[in-house]
TrEMBL record:
Protein name: Translocation and assembly module subunit TamA
Signal sequence range: 1-27
Keyword set includes Lipid biosynthesis: no
Record flagged with keyword Signal: yes
Keywords assigned: Cell outer membrane, Membrane, Signal, Transmembrane
Family per similarity comment: Belongs to the TamA family.
Organism domain of life: Bacteria
Length: 589
């Protein structure tokens, strides 16, 4: 690699890192307030109480009369601001002097004195829910106890949490008939008297659905997250609204508990639906460095046969990939997360390492196991004609398999925390109609961790392992492993890494190991920059693994439908291009 290019890349990495860590620089005010004598949250509260009033500084000039008035009021404001943190005998003094650079400095010196300490906590639970384990556990975790400093923010938070816990359990009338803090400033003591009366427990009554008449009633009831007679829960109402909204079948969803119509503590629920168009036809233009320029047409019918069945088809034409994909999904009558589907995939792919024409049919059954968990047994039958390393061949495979995935992200468009893990086990044998025999496992994992300073750490790993009864040459490209590309080892061309034949041509491998570390810094509202390090390769023997590495920088722009990601990657391998550009749309889970 030429020295000049290496130097430019190091400069780019350094500048990107500085941008990641840089904090916004604000214009300096001509008046500064300095608070001393107290630390932590109490000091922060005093600072907030002593924010400069509007009009004290105009056009960069200080109004001296306002400044003197502010300085006179500062000690009392500081004393009041310290009381929530237990300091009821605090003293404060304020002075005004000229600081460096012509800046006016208001110095507030605080003597907090002895803090008020709690000597008694009388916390009682009353009502029908007084013996609920979750509620008693929350009461036992009350943060203030005898001997501790009286912290009123902690007291208020604990009160709110206790009441919210009672309401989450269905005790909607939960309230505090008694909530007292008796403070003796002279003795520096406080006594807390708190009683939560839960009242009676509420339960779900029947659910009435308005709108959505074009869908069968049994289909709509799948989205309701509660049953009649269960304890009332706002969380269940929120889950119900999310279920309807995520189905993409309704433009507007309003779930309303009709508490005013409750009888004998039974709350009916009204669901109002405004249906979205059942059929959509969307053309699309795009570009990806793995596929080149592309054009697609996507057609979807969300209510085929008026039974809620989903027909989803796509026709796509790109420089290196062309094909048709169709999926017909029949939802389970009893479980929202379960379904049966049939898929058809016709595809032609031409890359530097191989050419492939594939026709595949898959039947699968999806079982929703919990939040974000899906288990899928499937049967896939495929016919593939291919050319690898100037060798033409064809393959027929009957692949029974099992997939499992679990994911949880805080946002699907611009996630900053969460994880995803998936596992795919599949096999083939001549006894079941395949040309060859194999057992193959594929695992993927991805995790996002937020870091202070608007940073996000992203790590991912991709693995593959194969046991073959026939030579690798008998397997089609869709079953072999390759590395390199936008979602693999950046810095290398798509599918360009893997074992080579005697002539030096990449032919793919039996196993795969790929890992990636990336650190992103959010900028402004919709932008971000990152640095990354990718490593991995495909191979045939664990004793002879040649891992390739790529490093670089990225720029990200986030839109309501997904992110636009531009990467400049440098492959750490001899005789490689110094820089490779990668462009992707969306976040790869």
């Amino acid at each position: 690699m030429p020295r000049s290019i290496a130097t430019y890349l190091r400069i780019a990495l350094s500048l990107t890192w500085l941008v990641c860590l840089a904090a916004p620089v604000l214009a300096a005010e001509p008046v500064e307030v300095a608070v001393s004598g107290i630390e932590g949250d109490a000091q922060d509260n005093v600072r907030r109480a002593l924010e400069l009033p509007h009009g004290l500084v105009r056009d960069g000039k200080v109004d001296r009369l306002w400044l003197e008035r502010f300085a006179r009021q500062a000690p009392e404001k500081a004393r009041v601001a310290l009381q929530p943190y237990g300091f009821y005998r605090a003293k404060a003094a304020a002075t005004v002097r000229q600081g460096k650079g012509g800046k006016t400095l208001v110095e507030v010196v605080v003597d907090p004195g002895e803090p008020v300490r709690v000597v008694e906590v009388d916390l009682k639970l009353a009502g029908e829910g007084a013996q609920q384990k979750e509620l008693r556990r929350q009461a036992d975790a009350f943060p203030l106890a005898a001997g501790q400093v009286l912290l009123q923010p902690s007291y208020e938070r604990a009160k709110g949490t206790l009441q919210a816990q009672a309401q989450a359990l269905g005790f909607l009338d939960a309230d505090f008939p008694r909530h007292e803090i008796r403070i003796s400033p002279d003795l520096a003591t406080a006594r807390i008297h708190l009683t939560l009366d839960t009242g009676g427990r509420y339960y779900f009554d029947g659910t009435h659905i308005e709108g959505g008449a074009e869908y069968p009633d049994v289909f709509l009831k799948r989205f309701i997250a509660f049953k009649e007679g269960e304890p009332f829960s706002y969380a269940k109402l929120g889950e119900t609204q999310l279920n309807f909204a995520n189905s993409e079948r309704f433009r507007q969803v309003v779930v309303t508990p009709q508490r005013e119509e409750a009888k004998e503590h039974k709350v009916p629920v009204l669901v109002r639906l405004t249906a979205a168009p059942r059929r959509t036809l969307r053309p699309g233009l795009g570009y990806g460095t793995d596929t080149g320029g592309r054009f697609s047409v996507h057609y979807r019918d969300l209510n085929l046969d008026h039974g809620g069945n989903d027909l989803d088809t796509s026709l796509y034409i790109a420089e290196r990939l062309q094909g048709f994909a169709g999926r017909y999904t029949m939802p389970s009558a009893s479980d929202l997360r379960s379904s049966t589907s049939i898929q058809l995939n016709l595809q032609r792919e031409t890359v530097s390492t191989y050419q492939s024409r594939l026709a595949a049919v898959e039947i699968d059954r999806n079982f929703g196991l919990g939040r974000g968990e899906v288990a899928t047994p499937y049967l896939k039958i495929q016919q593939e004609n291919y050319k690898v390393a100037n060798v033409n061949s064809q393959s027929r495979l009957v692949l029974p398999g099992f997939r499992f995935s679990k994911d949880r992200f805080n946002d699907l468009v611009r996630p900053t925390s969460g994880y995803r893990v998936s596992l795919d086990l599949r096999g083939a044998h001549q006894y079941f109609g395949s040309d060859t025999g194999l057992v193959q496992g594929i695992g993927n994992a991805s995790v996002l961790i937020p870091i202070p300073g608007r940073l996000t750490f992203h790590a991912r790993a991709n693995t593959g392992y194969s046991i073959l009864t026939d030579p690798l040459a008998d397997l089609p490209p869709s079953i072999r492993f390759f590395a390199g590309g936008d979602q693999s080892v950046r810095g290398y061309a798509y599918q360009s890494l893997g074992p080579r034949d005697a002539a030096g041509r990449v032919v793919g491998g039996k196993h795969l190991l790929v890992g990636s570390l990336e650190l992103e810094r959010a900028l402004f509202k919709n932008w971000g920059v990152s640095i990354f390090d990718d490593i991995g390769n495909a191979f045939n023997d664990f004793g002879n693994v040649d891992l390739k590495q790529g490093v670089g920088v990225g720029a990200h722009y986030y839109t309501p439908v997904g992110g636009l990601n531009l990467y400049l990657a440098h492959p750490l391998a001899p005789n490689s291009p110094p820089i490779r550009i990668h462009f992707t749309v969306g976040f790869e889970f």
